[in-house]
Amino acid sequence: MINAEIEALLNEAKDTKQLLKTNQRYMEEPIRESEGVMTLLKVSRGSLKNWRDQGIIEFSPINGKFFYYRVSAINKMLAKHLQKIRSVMIDLRTIIEMVIKNNPSLDKEDLYNAVLKKIRKEWFLTEDELMAVEDEVAERLNNY
What we know:
The chain is built from six helices and three strands, in the order H-E-H-H-E-E-H-H-H. It has helices at 2-24, 34-41, 45-53, 71-102, 108-123, 127-142, and strands at 31-33, 60-62, 66-70. The chain has a three-stranded antiparallel sheet. Strand 2 and strand 3 (66-70) form a beta hairpin. The protein is elongated, with a radius of gyration of 21 Å.
């Protein structure tokens, strides 16, 4: 019984995949499956799931098991993500100076952690966005 249900789901997924491939050339906009998005953005399945759960990326579920993404939704998410990081980078000097002023006795590692904590709190960055900023924070702190 379970094998028959699994077989039916697999057949339905294959039919959906074939339908998308066949009709994609007639669609105004290309669509990507989860695997394609993960490869394109170099992210894990877990990161992609977190982005869906947090509403960071638009998607269309099919049977709650298969997820499809419009290329425009991917580009929109990237543009928003990059704009947010650019804003943090612009304010980074001010943030570092404020943390140093309020905590003059911190060593470099504690200062680094305090700056990241402040950025996370004020900018509501996701873990992925914060990772994109971490190297820049370390590099700038080396100049202090």
